[in-house]
């Protein structure tokens, strides 16, 4: 029996032209339809160690993210991680992890349709985000690899610092908040036009 995968759509596809108009110090692009899997396992358990071996990585601790090959593992809570991988890898990754877990006590759930990801880069990223986010993005406080669940302009996000001085970040936002956040980002960049 063949199961058809429903078509997925980018919640921000209509924003590409607007993002292209941003000042040169802030580049925004959507990374739509990434594979996103929620992993729940007891840290240090047999299941967690098997998953770590399968991914070739240690599951990160609080407020951290780690990258293994094409999988980014984000700490979401004491026994919860979000695995982010390229579009199209969902079925293979799910099958591999479920096989790895076997009968052990752990779960892996596909939440790919829940969020979209905005990749921000440029020397003004930290300043723009400071307008709506209470997180201190100074590199001494939030170095590369930091993963924080917070609010940006009152929208719940997961922020992943990917570049020095927060010059490159990912914002994972629920699809229902994506347009609101895009509108906010455009407005927050208004004063930097010409920068």
From TrEMBL:
Pfam families: SoxG. InterPro entries: SoxG (IPR007375), TrmE/GcvT-like (IPR027266). Signal peptide: none annotated. It comes from the Bacteria. This is Sarcosine oxidase subunit gamma. It comes from Streptomyces malaysiensis.
